[in-house]
Amino acid sequence: MISYTSTARYKAALRSARFASDRIADATSKPEEMPQDARYFLTDDSQSGFGVTSDGTLIGLFSRVKGRGEVLVNAAIREGARLLDCFDGFLPSYYAGYGFRETERSANWTPGEPDVVFMALNH
Q: Would you tell me which of 8, 41, 91, 94 could form a disulfide with 86, CB atoms 3.0–4.6 Å apart?
């Protein structure tokens, strides 16, 4: 089950996930960079979560448990996620499966790294 949680609890779970997984660390912002005024959600075991900003941007989606992506993305949409940004590669096509479409693309600030893809919910 996914429930609303405090900013501090979400950031602690994200910090732990980033420490345990280079993949999560590479795909998410540092906890201290996450906005204080977003709404945050965690699974009961604190192994997966996400945030939604006041403008409907999905932020910091992570999971240390394989196979939870569908539940997390659908929950984020139910909680008002309408926008997101991610690195080019697997994620843009993954999010497209939930109705997000690319709206903009920017070169990564690190030369040679994947572009940043901005997406909006299409329905």
A: 91
Rounded-to-integer distance, Cα 75 and Cα 81, Å: 9
Statement to judge: residues 72 and 86 lie in one domain: no
Q: How far apart are CA 66 and CA 79, in angstroms?
A: 22
The number of domains in the chain is: 2
- Same domain? For 50 and 110 the reply is no
Q: Residue 13's domain spans which residues?
A: 1-81
Question: Could you report the per-residue pLDDT of 52-109, keeping only the tens digit for each?
Answer: 999 999 999 999 999 999 999 999 999 999 999 999 999 999 999 999 999 999 998 8
Q: Please, are residues 69 and 62 in contact by the beta-carbon 8 Å criterion?
A: no
